[in-house]
Structures are given as structure tokens and as C-alpha cells.
Write a structure and sequence with these properties.
The chain is α+β, with helices and mostly antiparallel strands. The protein contains nine helices and nine strands. 38% of the residues lie in helices and 19% in strands. Strands 2-1-9-8-7 form a five-stranded antiparallel β-sheet, sandwiched between helices. It has a two-stranded antiparallel ribbon with strand order 3-6. The radius of gyration is 17 Å and the shape is globular. The termini are close together.
Length: 253
């Protein structure tokens, strides 16, 4: 049984907007804190881009095995690997999906947004019944960002998505299983899995961060799979990340 008092004391006093959603898939027990409060998505929006890639692949509109050359002008800074490889590298679209998730590669993300279409990603989001999640622009578009045009998520929407993924309901059972395997190969593991790796507890998750923003949403494979979504903005990032790590340890007990 969840120690909800400990959950509450861990998040109380955190600055900014903090949303948390915790659900034990075996017992149905749930605890939430501001689950419907929208926050800037940062890299968590990549979950929904991945889902649309699988939808289009099953509809034979997108081929994971098709080669794609990355033009140097498409390379973006910060997260990922592609920018740091040789100019004009040729990969497959499936490689870009993998890199977008496990290394949060921003170059791969924008290329996938262009290939899949913003409207198509949002139709995928709507089809899942998510009310407060939206892809409004590509990454690194400062002019749009200055106008307040951002991508948004909530802890509750991410929780719904992950629960559907566990049930095999995102695109298909096979596509859902493949997406879970990709999330389980996450290389950015300083948040949710911080205390769990040494205990052999596996996580399938996706992080996000920016100035004053830190997120991690995923599944903790404890005695039963437990969905854990922590999102925050306008926050003290080190303080919120410590709370996130502590919550994950509490959930895994």
C-alpha cells in the first residue's frame, strides 16, 4: 500500500508548478498532486511523437528501415548524439526514433516532426483522450517561444498514456511492446532510477528538462508495474529532482 503521507510531505513546499501522478497497475491504487496542471513539455513531448511514428508505420505511411540523411543545417545543440557525428550521416528513421527517446536527441526529434506532421501527432494525442497535451511547434524555435507558443503536457495525461502502453493499447500490442522496450533502454538515468538501479529495479521512462523545468515520466517495475509521472516548471530544479528521486524510491518499496 502506498505511503501517501510520505508522498505528500515529499512534494509539499516545492516551488513552482509541480504535478505528480502515481498508479499501481496491480491494485489500482492511485495518488496524484495537481495531475491536470499543464506545464511546458520539454522533451517529454517526444513520447507522443514516437507513438505517431508507430501509428504511421502500421498504416504503411512510415518505414522505420528507410534510410535518411541528416543535413548539417538540421543539427541542433544540446541533447543527443547526431550533432556530434560526421556531417551528412545517413541513418534509418527507426534510428532517429530510438535516439529521440534514449538520448533525447533534438535533431532526430525535429526531423521526425517534419516527417510525421504536427497535426498528425496532435490527432494521435486526441485519439488517446488526452485533454491537456499538445505539440504546438518544433524544438528550438525562439521566435515562437518568445510569443508564448509552447508544447504542453500534464502528469495525468502522461499517466494515461503509460497505462495504455502497458495494456498494449497504443497503436497495437506489438507497437506498445516495442515502445516500452525503447523506454527501458533510456540512457538518461539521473532522476527516476537514481536509487533504483543499484537495487536491480528496472524503469522505462522519458525525461525532460530546461531552465526551471524538470520532468520524468515512466514505469517502475517493482513488485508490480507502477506508473510514476513527475512534472514541474518554474521550480528549483535540484530540489525538485531530489524529491523526484525520493518519490521513486518510496514507490518501489
Amino acid at each position: 500500500m502506498f505511503d501517501k503521507t510520505a508522498f505528500e510531505s515529499t512534494v509539499s513546499g516545492l516551488s513552482g508548478t509541480v504535478g505528480v501522478y502515481i498508479h499501481d497497475t496491480a491494485t489500482g491504487e492511485t495518488w496524484a498532486h495537481n495531475p491536470d496542471s499543464p506545464v511546458i513539455a520539454a522533451s517529454v513531448i517526444k513520447l507522443f511523437i514516437m507513438a505517431e511514428a508507430y501509428r504511421q508505420a502500421e498504416a504503411r505511411l512510415f518505414d522505420f528501415a528507410e534510410d535518411v540523411t541528416v543535413p548539417p543545417e538540421k543539427c541542433l545543440p544540446s541533447c543527443g548524439a547526431i550533432t556530434y557525428l560526421h556531417p551528412g550521416i545517413t541513418l534509418q528513421w527507426g534510428d532517429l526514433v530510438t535516439l529521440m527517446i534514449i538520448l533525447s536527441d533534438n535533431t532526430a526529434t525535429n526531423m521526425l516532426i517534419d516527417r510525421l506532421g504536427i497535426d498528425n501527432v496532435n490527432r494521435m494525442i486526441d485519439s488517446l483522450g488526452l485533454k491537456n497535451t499538445r505539440l504546438n511547434r518544433r524544438l528550438f524555435e525562439p521566435a515562437l517561444s518568445a510569443q508564448g507558443i509552447q508544447n504542453y503536457i500534464t502528469a495525468g495525461d502522461c499517466g494515461i498514456f503509460l497505462e495504455k502502453l502497458l495494456r498494449g493499447e497504443i497503436v497495437s500490442a506489438d507497437a506498445s511492446a516495442q515502445m516500452l522496450r525503447t523506454l527501458s533502454n533510456q540512457r538518461l538515468n539521473g532522476k527516476m532510477p537514481f536509487y533504483l538501479h543499484s537495487e536491480g529495479i528496472r524503469c522505462a521512462h522519458k525525461t525532460g528538462e530546461d531552465d526551471g523545468i524538470t520532468h520524468d515520466v515512466g514505469i517502475i517495475y517493482a513488485a508490480s508495474p507502477r506508473v510514476f509521472c513527475f512534472v514541474s516548471q518554474n521550480t528549483d530544479v535540484p530540489e525538485s529532482e531530489r524529491a523526484l528521486q525520493d518519490l521513486a524510491a518510496l514507490i518501489a518499496r
